[in-house]
Amino acid sequence: MGSRSNALMWFRKGLRIHDNPALEYAAKNSEHLYPVFVIDPHYMEPDPAAFSPGSSRAGLNRIRFLLESLVDLDASFKKLGSRLIVLKGEPFQVLMHYLKEWDISKLCFEFDTDPYYLALDDKVKSYASTAGIEVFSPVSHTLFNPAEIIQKNGGRPPLTYQSFIKVAGQPSWSSTPLSISLSCLPPIGNPGHDLVAEVASVNDLGYEETEEDERTPFKGGESEALRRLKESMANKEWVANFEKPKGDPSAFLKPATTVLSPYLKVIQLKSLFSFISFMKYSDDLISSLFLDYIGSSVVFHPGISTCVFRKFKEMLKSIHLHQFPFLDRSMRQFHMLFQMTLLLSDTVLNWLVLKLILQLLWREFFYTVAFGTPNFDRMQGNRICKQIPWDNNNDLIASWRDSKTGFPWIDANMVQLRKWGWMHHLARHCVACFLTRGDMFQHWEKGRDVFERLLIDSDWAINNGNWLWLSCSSFFYQYNRIYSPISFGKKYDPNGNYIRHFLPVLKDMPKEYIYEPWTAPPSIQRKAKCIIGVDYPKPVVSHETASKECRRRLGEAYELNKKLNGAVTDEDLKKLR
Ligand code: FAD
User: Fold this and answer.
1) Which of 70, 77, 202, 507 registers the highest number of CB atoms within 10 A of its CB?
2) For the whole model, what pTM was predicted?
């Protein structure tokens, strides 16, 4: 390879210009840089048989969100005198073709832990190696390298959050590549006829946009993520009240949590320090020191990259060392982050930032376990998953999916999921519990599939991890603790405003009945123009009976798992059905 060469940057999830080590490496010493995104039929091919518009794996909201993120990425490239090249087809075939066509000698892409990408990337790497193409694939979608955590934990992933924190909190992490904000890029060469065009719309991909109000209010793209963050941070009351795991799942005008998840999914907006910079306390010494150093780039470079921390640490050391004794310790990544947060939280941010970091570490936790657990996304062959004889009742599953369970809280949650592609964490808890161990006793994999398709933050590791958790199949085992589909939502929203918004058929139901409309006398139902069983379904199960039965069956399954030490067969499960 000569000193100057052609590079291809293959975008998948990290759809951002800034704080992107793969892109930075691709740009370095390259004569031409081809930034590429491949529209993969595996995720994007329209599926007319799917239960809602979209492909078999992704609903239309998810697809639209991705395309919006691509438009934003392309706009960022245009500002740097380049373009995003959007190609279509099976990624391996497409890449092989263009690696040759453009005479590429350096291929860069972000490391991905999803099994689909692990398999694809192996193929791509092996092709590149035979073709003499250099591959650079750094870990930048997560703060930690899951493989490194697993190795430090003796070869197995930590299976509790606490044990994860313990490993992650150890100092002496290998440093991640330096990451800077790029101010210019090598030009793209000659990509060929018609290859540089505006990013396709959903219609161009073969989907029909309907006028139906099914659109998520969350727009894709790094710029939008940053705009949302600024707006949130300007809301002092919201900032002051941010609390997890509490928080009102029925708040929809201003969600109780950050709604960072869709952006973290595709952009990995490592956002914590943008929180700090926009905080009400931004005139504080530390915030201002941080801002002084990062300057306006914090707005565009909200990274927690090692580079930023290292330089920040050095700067603090040189200026105010006596005030920051902890900085003398050998700290990297989490350790540094954690200590910084403690300091900040004492003097500046109460516990907000710490709480957010702790939330983000759940993401890291699930990524690590998912990466280190074969068959993580299924019950069979998954060594950390309890074997449970779930039922398979398609009618019940469809009633849950289509917001027709007759329990307004559950149904309204599912309408929000379908329309917005997002719902509050506790709303996710409620519907997941209801489908599985709470009321319906249906397989968590069925619920996982629906979430995977409809969530705009749909994420393989996190989604599977949380379904395992909520169904008491792994991580969490207190199956006697069931969310009531009636009283849980009422606690937050006694008037039922959330239900009235997402289920307008119940908008005139008096608040006494809004969570249990089947108990409303006929005259009230008539007055509310909502006859139960006609305009809105009767409950598909009796919560009281169903939840007791679920507890009993889970108790039995747990006994069996204990007796057979996890080696439960299909035959054993059949006997419990
Ligand atoms: P905030 O509370 O503001 O938290 C900030 C960030 O911390 C989130 O964006 C997320 O990256 C991380 N985080 C918070 N809680 C969790 C958690 N329990 N697990 C992992 N990371 C967390 N989240 C996804 O991003 N993708 C999914 O596919 C997904 N599927 C889920 C399925 C079920 C059944 C459940 C119960 C939860 C699921 N979650 C998923 C986790 C969580 O509900 C969302 O991350 C969160 O609600 C997103 O909103 P937020 O960004 O406002 O969260």
Assistant:
1) 70
2) 0.87
pLDDT tens across 368-388, in order? 999 999 999 999 999 999 999
What tokens appear for 349 in the block?
């941010």
On whether 52 is known to bind a ligand per the annotation, the reply is no
**Inter-CA distances, 159 with 162, 196, 229, 362, 469, Å:** 9, 46, 32, 12, 12
- The residue written with tokens 């849980």 in the block is 488
Distances (CA, A) of 125 to 35, 96, 450, 495, 536: 18, 11, 32, 57, 54
Closest protein CA for atom 29 of ligand 1 = 463
Atom of ligand 1 minimally distant from the CA of 467: 34
Pocket test for ligand 1, best of 258, 275, 359 (most atoms within 8 A of CB): 359
ipTM: 0.97
Task: Indicate which atom in ligand 1 lies nearest the CA of residue 428.
Answer: 36
| pLDDT tens digits for range 184-213 | 889 998 888 778 888 988 889 988 877 665
Integer CA distances (angstroms), 437 to 499, 537, 543, 560, in order:
23, 22, 12, 16
Cβ 369 vs Cβ 384: under 8 Å: yes
Ligand 1 atom 47 nearest Cα: 425
359 marked ligand binding residue: yes
